[in-house]
Amino acid sequence: MSPTASPYAGRFAPSPTGPLHAGSLVAALASWLDARAHGGRWLVRIEDVDTPRCVPGATETILAQLAACGLVPDEAPLRQSDRGGLYQAALDALQRAGRAYPCGCSRKDIELFWAAQGRPVDRHADAVYPGTCRDGLQGKAARAWRLRCGAPGKPLVIDWTDRRLGAQRQDVKHAVGDFVLKRADGLWAYQLAVVVDDAAQGITHIVRGEDLADSTARQIHLQQALGLPRPVYLHTPLVMAADGEKLSKQTGAQAVATGDALAALQGATAVLGFGLEASAPSVPTLLACAVAAWRQRWGADLSRSAPGTPAPPAD
Ligand code: GLU
Fold it and tell me: CA-based, 20 to 30 A from 177: which of 68, 223, 286, 307?
């Protein structure tokens, strides 16, 4: 099926930290199916801003794995490592608008702050930023850049609707605080890069794993701060490892074998709720059946899920 003039644009945005595994294949397949079911474009963006975590050769491996699964992007993939100028322009705009500010706090400083409040930070959790440098660096050297989230003393509640998970709400100030746009090591933060690129590429629909649902309120706040449109969101089920943890490269997930793409795709369709084991003797047949199944599953939703228009800047 070829893409049409539909305004729909979707994407799969892997970080090249290792090969595609059963969990990331679900997100790739779901985003491709949604694009095809809408008659829209499907893009691949390589999210390689976190350079210390990138693995040499992983980009090529992922693209080869996608191709073996019949998931071929409609345009040449972009790499975030080529796009620093765009992220800098966005940070400059936020800074000029008084929305971004430099921060001199280390993780230790933030932990000490919360310990002094009698609320020590869980070792495995990201500490909520208490806003220490909001009104100035207090003599410290600038390390990172952060986005202001809400007026002093006020929450920043973001409401959004996920096509699968339904109504969602997060008080970003309470959950994460003013979050990082540019890191202390000089690297661009995922939240900024993803929001800038989704808008620059005209992405209307984001289909990705449920582990990223928690980032969505932050991304919406950033879209509002930059005057960018809000895409439509669908977060897909995660594949769990035997120990109940999310399947990930870190937990040693098996790479999708290019020689066994059909079985891998069958597994992914089962996770998405419409296993096609019996009816699909080949990758192209399976994909065609899966597009039909996706249309049936999300049919009513396809016409309802029109993307938003740029929102006025909020606090
Ligand atoms: N690069 C992110 C990841 O691999 C996905 C980002 C996104 O889909 O928004 O987890």
Answer: 307
